[in-house]
Amino acid sequence: MAQPDPAHAAPSLPREVPAGAKESSLTLERGLSLLQAVADAESEAPTISDLAARIGVSRAAVYRLLGPLQSRGLVRREGSRVRLGLGVLWLAGRVLPQMRVASTPALRGLAEKVGATAHLTVADGSEAQAVAVVEPSWTSYHVSYRVGTRHPVQRGAAGRAVDLQAGVHRWISSSGDLQQGAFGVAAPVRGVPGLRASVGVVSLQPMASEEVGPLVVEAAEAVAEALR
Protein backbone atom coordinates (compact mmCIF):
# COMPACT_ATOMS: atom_id res chain seq x y z
CA MET A 1 0.00 0.00 0.00
CA ALA A 2 1.36 3.41 -0.93
CA GLN A 3 2.49 5.54 2.00
CA PRO A 4 1.33 9.19 2.20
CA ASP A 5 3.91 11.73 1.07
CA PRO A 6 5.10 13.64 4.18
CA ALA A 7 5.52 16.76 2.05
CA HIS A 8 1.76 16.77 1.38
CA ALA A 9 0.62 15.67 4.83
CA ALA A 10 -2.19 17.67 6.36
CA PRO A 11 -0.92 20.44 8.66
CA SER A 12 -1.31 19.80 12.35
CA LEU A 13 -4.10 21.77 13.97
CA PRO A 14 -3.63 23.67 17.23
CA ARG A 15 -4.82 21.70 20.21
CA GLU A 16 -7.90 23.04 21.86
CA VAL A 17 -7.38 24.13 25.46
CA PRO A 18 -9.60 22.04 27.75
CA ALA A 19 -12.59 23.89 29.13
CA GLY A 20 -11.46 23.19 32.69
CA ALA A 21 -8.07 24.79 32.06
CA LYS A 22 -9.72 27.88 30.57
CA GLU A 23 -12.01 28.17 33.60
CA SER A 24 -9.11 27.75 36.04
CA SER A 25 -7.11 30.43 34.24
CA LEU A 26 -10.07 32.80 34.29
CA THR A 27 -10.68 32.16 37.98
CA LEU A 28 -7.03 32.84 38.78
CA GLU A 29 -7.09 36.06 36.78
CA ARG A 30 -10.23 37.23 38.58
CA GLY A 31 -8.76 36.30 41.97
CA LEU A 32 -5.62 38.32 41.24
CA SER A 33 -7.74 41.23 40.00
CA LEU A 34 -9.73 41.09 43.22
CA LEU A 35 -6.59 41.12 45.35
CA GLN A 36 -5.25 44.06 43.34
CA ALA A 37 -8.52 45.94 43.79
CA VAL A 38 -8.34 45.49 47.56
CA ALA A 39 -4.71 46.65 47.56
CA ASP A 40 -5.51 49.72 45.44
CA ALA A 41 -7.95 51.08 48.05
CA GLU A 42 -5.99 53.93 49.66
CA SER A 43 -8.43 54.97 52.38
CA GLU A 44 -11.70 53.21 53.24
CA ALA A 45 -11.79 49.48 52.61
CA PRO A 46 -13.93 48.55 49.58
CA THR A 47 -17.23 46.74 49.99
CA ILE A 48 -18.29 43.55 48.23
CA SER A 49 -20.34 45.69 45.85
CA ASP A 50 -17.37 47.98 45.18
CA LEU A 51 -15.18 45.01 44.30
CA ALA A 52 -17.83 43.44 42.09
CA ALA A 53 -18.14 46.65 40.10
CA ARG A 54 -14.39 47.15 39.94
CA ILE A 55 -13.51 43.75 38.47
CA GLY A 56 -16.74 43.29 36.52
CA VAL A 57 -18.27 40.26 38.20
CA SER A 58 -21.32 39.55 40.33
CA ARG A 59 -21.39 39.84 44.12
CA ALA A 60 -21.79 36.06 44.31
CA ALA A 61 -18.60 35.66 42.28
CA VAL A 62 -16.74 37.99 44.64
CA TYR A 63 -17.79 35.86 47.61
CA ARG A 64 -16.50 32.74 45.83
CA LEU A 65 -13.19 34.39 44.95
CA LEU A 66 -12.69 35.67 48.51
CA GLY A 67 -12.78 32.15 49.96
CA PRO A 68 -9.31 30.96 48.87
CA LEU A 69 -7.78 34.40 49.51
CA GLN A 70 -9.17 34.45 53.03
CA SER A 71 -8.02 30.91 53.80
CA ARG A 72 -4.45 31.96 52.96
CA GLY A 73 -4.65 35.13 55.00
CA LEU A 74 -4.27 37.41 51.98
CA VAL A 75 -7.53 39.27 52.69
CA ARG A 76 -9.85 39.62 55.67
CA ARG A 77 -13.47 40.66 55.87
CA GLU A 78 -14.93 43.19 58.26
CA GLY A 79 -18.64 42.86 57.66
CA SER A 80 -19.18 43.83 54.04
CA ARG A 81 -15.76 45.44 53.70
CA VAL A 82 -12.53 43.74 52.65
CA ARG A 83 -8.96 44.56 53.66
CA LEU A 84 -5.56 43.04 52.97
CA GLY A 85 -4.60 40.29 55.41
CA LEU A 86 -1.37 39.64 57.28
CA GLY A 87 -0.53 36.90 54.78
CA VAL A 88 0.53 39.67 52.41
CA LEU A 89 3.21 40.70 54.90
CA TRP A 90 4.57 37.16 54.94
CA LEU A 91 4.77 37.17 51.14
CA ALA A 92 6.43 40.59 51.16
CA GLY A 93 8.97 39.33 53.66
CA ARG A 94 10.05 36.64 51.20
CA VAL A 95 10.76 39.12 48.40
CA LEU A 96 14.08 40.55 49.58
CA PRO A 97 15.73 37.19 50.38
CA GLN A 98 14.77 35.89 46.94
CA MET A 99 16.04 39.08 45.29
CA ARG A 100 19.31 38.65 47.17
CA VAL A 101 19.78 35.10 45.92
CA ALA A 102 18.83 35.98 42.33
CA SER A 103 21.14 38.99 42.12
CA THR A 104 24.24 37.56 43.82
CA PRO A 105 25.86 35.93 40.73
CA ALA A 106 25.78 39.18 38.75
CA LEU A 107 26.99 41.20 41.74
CA ARG A 108 29.79 38.71 42.36
CA GLY A 109 30.99 39.04 38.78
CA LEU A 110 30.85 42.84 38.98
CA ALA A 111 32.76 42.99 42.28
CA GLU A 112 35.53 40.74 40.96
CA LYS A 113 35.89 42.64 37.66
CA VAL A 114 35.99 46.10 39.20
CA GLY A 115 37.67 45.25 42.48
CA ALA A 116 35.05 47.18 44.43
CA THR A 117 32.06 46.37 46.61
CA ALA A 118 28.96 45.72 44.46
CA HIS A 119 25.41 46.19 45.65
CA LEU A 120 21.75 46.01 44.68
CA THR A 121 19.77 48.96 46.01
CA VAL A 122 15.96 49.17 46.07
CA ALA A 123 13.88 52.31 46.54
CA ASP A 124 11.37 52.27 49.39
CA GLY A 125 9.45 55.50 49.03
CA SER A 126 11.93 58.36 49.46
CA GLU A 127 14.65 56.09 50.81
CA ALA A 128 17.08 53.73 49.11
CA GLN A 129 17.99 50.46 50.83
CA ALA A 130 20.87 48.10 50.08
CA VAL A 131 19.33 44.63 49.81
CA ALA A 132 22.32 42.67 48.49
CA VAL A 133 26.05 43.33 48.87
CA VAL A 134 29.06 41.41 47.50
CA GLU A 135 32.64 42.33 48.34
CA PRO A 136 35.59 41.51 46.05
CA SER A 137 37.77 38.59 47.10
CA TRP A 138 41.18 39.73 45.83
CA THR A 139 41.60 43.35 46.98
CA SER A 140 43.77 44.42 49.93
CA TYR A 141 41.00 46.65 51.23
CA HIS A 142 37.52 47.67 50.14
CA VAL A 143 34.37 49.34 51.39
CA SER A 144 32.32 47.39 53.92
CA TYR A 145 28.71 48.09 52.99
CA ARG A 146 26.00 46.52 55.14
CA VAL A 147 22.79 45.00 53.84
CA GLY A 148 19.92 47.11 55.12
CA THR A 149 21.81 50.41 54.89
CA ARG A 150 19.40 53.23 54.06
CA HIS A 151 19.89 56.73 52.70
CA PRO A 152 17.79 59.36 50.86
CA VAL A 153 17.03 58.31 47.31
CA GLN A 154 18.25 61.70 46.05
CA ARG A 155 21.77 61.12 47.38
CA GLY A 156 24.59 58.92 46.13
CA ALA A 157 24.93 57.15 42.80
CA ALA A 158 22.90 54.17 44.01
CA GLY A 159 19.94 56.32 45.01
CA ARG A 160 19.92 58.69 42.06
CA ALA A 161 20.33 55.85 39.55
CA VAL A 162 17.04 54.29 40.68
CA ASP A 163 14.98 56.90 38.81
CA LEU A 164 17.47 57.61 36.02
CA GLN A 165 15.46 58.26 32.86
CA ALA A 166 16.02 55.94 29.92
CA GLY A 167 17.82 57.55 27.02
CA VAL A 168 19.44 60.29 29.14
CA HIS A 169 22.31 58.49 30.87
CA ARG A 170 23.10 54.79 31.17
CA TRP A 171 24.84 55.17 34.53
CA ILE A 172 25.62 57.84 37.10
CA SER A 173 28.64 58.60 39.29
CA SER A 174 29.01 60.21 42.70
CA SER A 175 31.84 61.34 44.98
CA GLY A 176 31.52 61.82 48.72
CA ASP A 177 27.71 62.11 48.70
CA LEU A 178 27.15 59.57 51.46
CA GLN A 179 30.63 59.09 52.89
CA GLN A 180 33.60 61.39 52.56
CA GLY A 181 36.24 59.80 50.35
CA ALA A 182 33.90 57.21 48.84
CA PHE A 183 33.19 57.00 45.12
CA GLY A 184 30.24 55.29 43.45
CA VAL A 185 28.98 54.29 40.02
CA ALA A 186 25.47 52.89 39.57
CA ALA A 187 22.95 52.00 36.85
CA PRO A 188 19.19 51.43 37.05
CA VAL A 189 17.59 48.00 36.95
CA ARG A 190 15.04 48.31 34.16
CA GLY A 191 12.19 46.15 32.92
CA VAL A 192 11.03 44.62 36.21
CA PRO A 193 7.42 45.76 36.83
CA GLY A 194 6.93 47.64 40.08
CA LEU A 195 10.64 47.69 40.95
CA ARG A 196 12.74 50.84 41.40
CA ALA A 197 16.29 49.62 41.87
CA SER A 198 19.90 50.07 40.88
CA VAL A 199 23.12 48.08 40.73
CA GLY A 200 26.33 49.83 41.65
CA VAL A 201 29.85 49.69 43.00
CA VAL A 202 31.43 51.75 45.76
CA SER A 203 35.14 52.29 46.30
CA LEU A 204 37.57 54.32 48.41
CA GLN A 205 39.48 55.20 45.25
CA PRO A 206 38.29 57.20 42.23
CA MET A 207 36.95 54.99 39.45
CA ALA A 208 37.10 55.65 35.72
CA SER A 209 33.37 55.84 35.04
CA GLU A 210 33.83 55.36 31.29
CA GLU A 211 35.35 51.95 32.06
CA VAL A 212 33.31 50.94 35.11
CA GLY A 213 29.98 52.30 33.85
CA PRO A 214 29.45 49.72 31.07
CA LEU A 215 30.29 46.90 33.51
CA VAL A 216 27.72 48.23 35.97
CA VAL A 217 25.10 48.50 33.21
CA GLU A 218 25.83 44.92 32.14
CA ALA A 219 25.40 43.70 35.72
CA ALA A 220 22.15 45.67 36.11
CA GLU A 221 20.78 44.03 32.97
CA ALA A 222 21.77 40.59 34.29
CA VAL A 223 20.02 41.31 37.60
CA ALA A 224 16.90 42.46 35.76
CA GLU A 225 16.87 39.26 33.76
CA ALA A 226 17.26 37.17 36.93
CA LEU A 227 14.36 38.97 38.62
CA ARG A 228 11.86 38.72 35.75
Automatic annotation (TrEMBL):
InterPro entries: GAF-like_dom_sf, HTH_MetabolicPath_Reg, Tscrpt_reg_IclR_C, Tscrpt_reg_IclR_N, WH-like_DNA-bd_sf, WH_DNA-bd_sf
Region (Disordered) residue spans: 1-21
Record's keyword terms, sorted: DNA-binding, Transcription, Transcription regulation
Domain HTH iclR-type: 25-88
Transmembrane intervals: none
One GO MF term attached to the UniProt entry: DNA-binding transcription factor activity
Pfam families reported for this sequence: HTH_IclR, IclR_C
Domain IclR-ED: 87-228
BP-aspect Gene Ontology terms: negative regulation of DNA-templated transcription
Keyword Transcription regulation: yes
PROSITE patterns xref list: HTH_ICLR, ICLR_ED
Protein name per its UniProtKB record: MarR family transcriptional regulator
Taxon lineage: Bacteria, Bacillati, Actinomycetota, Actinomycetes, Pseudonocardiales
